Amino acid sequence: MTDLSHPPLPGALPDKRQVAASFSRAAASYDSVAELQRAVGHELLSRLPSACVPRRWLDMGCGTGYFSRVLADLLPASQGVALDIAEGMLNHARPLGGAHHFIAGDAERLPLKAESVELLFSSLAVQWCANFDAVLREAHRVLQPGGVLAFASLCVGTLDELRESWRAADGLVHVNRFRTFEAYQQLCGASGMRVVSLERQPHVLHYPDVRSLTHELKALGAHNLNPGRPDGLTGRARIAALVQAYERFRQVQGLPATYQVVYAVLEKPL
Hints:
Blueprint: H1 16-25, H2 27-30, H3 35-46, E1 56-60, H4 66-74, E2 79-84, H5 87-93, E3 101-104, E4 117-123, H6 132-142, E5 143-154, H7 160-169, H8 181-189, E6 194-207, H9 210-220, H10 236-246, E7 255-267
Parallel strand pairs: 1-2, 1-4, 2-3, 4-5
Antiparallel strand pairs: 5-7, 6-7
Helix pairs in contact: 1-5, 7-10
């Protein structure tokens, strides 16, 4: 989904029901392997404008509710809504508190009233939304004038080491597809909101072996959900070929897995 002028082709991103089911299954294991998610979310928080002290906020794609609880601690006088498409994540998050309301919902069709929140925070969720135009329209609708949308997402270049290694092993689709950074620039620029900041930063994790990486992706619920992925068990020969191909990337710290993270802060005009 790299074409900026046309909508993505059908099947360019995974079906939302698959995404919801996958993350629901991962709810219990998610926090134990969420190093990237923690680092990215805290970096996104650090980018919020100093004047942003909302009374009402939305954590969109709240997952296990970690950042809902962080926001509640940072903004003790505020009221928060935690929203996720995965019921399993909400069931995990709800007993831990943080938000005043926990709602199952879709970022492309938010079940909130117009101009009902002053901050919309979303860390590593909107990369699963095929229609990012709709996400931005909904953000514009539910934000009060002067309200802030802060999101972190993933773009093309993410997990390129794994993608290239699979390509060398069997040529099939094994790694999730993401938008280009240029698409985020164009869509945010056309959103009707002021782009306060928008940049891309690589975040590299290291693993002792390929199995550790693929286990973590599965525990996060972020393993390959793309249409066109291979069905059935991956044969031993293909796994051996993958391992051999990935070893070409090995560094002193281990096998690298690069995530290209998009950080954006937008403001709805007064």
